[in-house]
Design goal:
The protein is of the alpha+beta class. It has seven helices and eight strands. Bound molecules: zinc ion.
Length: 208
């Protein structure tokens, strides 16, 4: 949930528009509007440490996800395995240039930038190295965040095209398992990266 709009020490309730002085709450607790009971904001426990851990795990998973065989195809007694990179090369060689570009963007480029951005924001906030550029970075992260779920869709595209190209038996490889774990990490990052906490820290640092 998006945090209530804050202006220094004032919090505006998004549901009833009440202007309240910002309550001091401990990590792991939620601030509730006394008027209407809506959630004003919540402080998660160790949000930056969790984001660092999850985004780093996601970044490490990229190597097996890209390089290990993603799907195996058995046909006419022969067995072929293809990694994500192979799939993109196959798409390029088959003349599906735009599909290849879109698959590359949504399965490799955007998830990598999304995880790197989350990792950078978490490290910068955790070690209090907040600069004006982090503000730009954080806004860009918001834009990317809304695009990340699309890679689930494009993973489906890869499998479908493979099925169309060769109506054969498909087996799941280590690459696909790593990719699914990577998607889970990417989704967890969106949950652990506490936007309210980051805005608070940035406001404090940039005011000084
Ligand atoms: Zn309210």
């Amino acid at each position: 949930m998006k945090p209530a709009t804050s202006l220094n020490n004032v919090v505006i309730c998004r549901r009833c528009d009440a202007a309240l002085s910002k309550p001091n709450i401990q990590p792991g607790h939620k601030a509730i509007c006394p008027g209407c009971g809506a959630l004003l904001f919540e402080l998660k426990k160790n949000p930056m440490e969790r984001t660092m851990a999850v985004s780093l795990a996601g970044l490490l998973l990229f190597f097996p996800a890209i390089l290990l065989p993603m799907i195996g195809v058995s046909a006419a007694g022969a067995h072929n395995e293809a990694s994500l990179i192979d799939c993109i090369v196959i798409l390029l060689n088959s003349g599906y240039h735009i599909v290849a570009l879109i698959v590359f963007l949504f399965t490799i480029a955007i998830p990598i930038v999304h995880l790197l951005a989350a990792f950078y924001i978490a490290v910068a906030v955790h070690f209090n190295k907040i600069s004006q550029s982090l503000l730009v970075f954080f806004r860009s992260y918001h834009v990317l965040d809304s695009w990340t779920m699309l890679h689930v869709f494009f993973l489906g595209v890869i499998v479908s095209i493979y099925k169309i190209v060769d109506l054969a038996e498909l087996t799941v490889g280590g690459g696909l398992i790593s990719f699914v774990l990577l998607l889970i990490c990417s989704t967890l990052v969106s949950v652990t990266l506490d936007h309210y906490y980051v805005w608070e820290k940035m406001e404090q640092a940039l005011e000084d």
